[in-house]
């Protein structure tokens, strides 16, 4: 068994790969609303595990993008909260927006 420190970002990209997705979709069981991938599927898949240095480079390269995605998602939640608080007040005329 090969022991490497697998990055969660490598696992994410691996799970999004066409081969893994196709295998998972083909193995799904259950009703259409609650389909699941059998856990033993992952024991049968042949997965390329690159050298640790490559995994580390992938993690280092992609981490800033995922951090930016998380930051943007937080900003979107905050802006949505502000919009939901202000919109009824704007619509009722309780507050007005000045124009120049």
Molecular structure report:
This protein has 100 residues and is mainly α. The chain has one domain (8-92). Helices cover 63% and strands 0% of the residues. The protein has four helices and no strands. The longest helix is centred in the last third of the chain and has 41 residues, at 52-92. The termini are far apart. The mean pLDDT is 89.
Describe this protein with a few key phrases.
elongated, single chain, about 65% helix
What's the helix and strand layout?
Layout (H helix, E strand, L loop, with lengths): L7 H8 L2 H10 L13 H4 L7 H41 L8
Give the low-confidence spans: none
How many helices does DSSP assign?
Answer: 4
Question: Tell me about the biggest sheet?
Answer: none
Span of the ends, CA to CA:
70 Å
Topology, number of strands: 0
Number of domains: 1
The mean pLDDT is: 89
Overall geometric form: elongated
Q: Based on helices, strands and strand pairing, what is the structural class? A: mainly alpha
Helical percentage: 55-70%
For this structure, the quaternary state is single chain
Give the percentage of residues in beta strands. Answer: under 5%
Helix and strand element order? HHHH
Return Rg in Å.
Answer: 23 Å
Brief overview:
With 100 residues, the protein is an all-alpha fold. The protein contains 4 helices and no strands. The protein has one domain.
């Amino acid at each position: 068994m090969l022991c490497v420190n697998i990055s969660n970002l490598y696992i994410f990209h691996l799970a999004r790969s066409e081969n893994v997705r196709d295998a998972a979709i083909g193995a799904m069981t259950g009703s259409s609303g609650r389909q699941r991938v059998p856990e033993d599927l992952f024991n049968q898949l042949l997965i390329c595990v690159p050298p640790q240095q490559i995994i580390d480079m992938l993690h280092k390269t992609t981490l800033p993008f995922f951090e930016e995605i998380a930051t943007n998602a937080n900003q979107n939640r905050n802006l949505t909260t502000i919009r939901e608080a202000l919109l009824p007040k704007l619509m009722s005329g309780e507050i007005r927006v000045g124009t120049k």
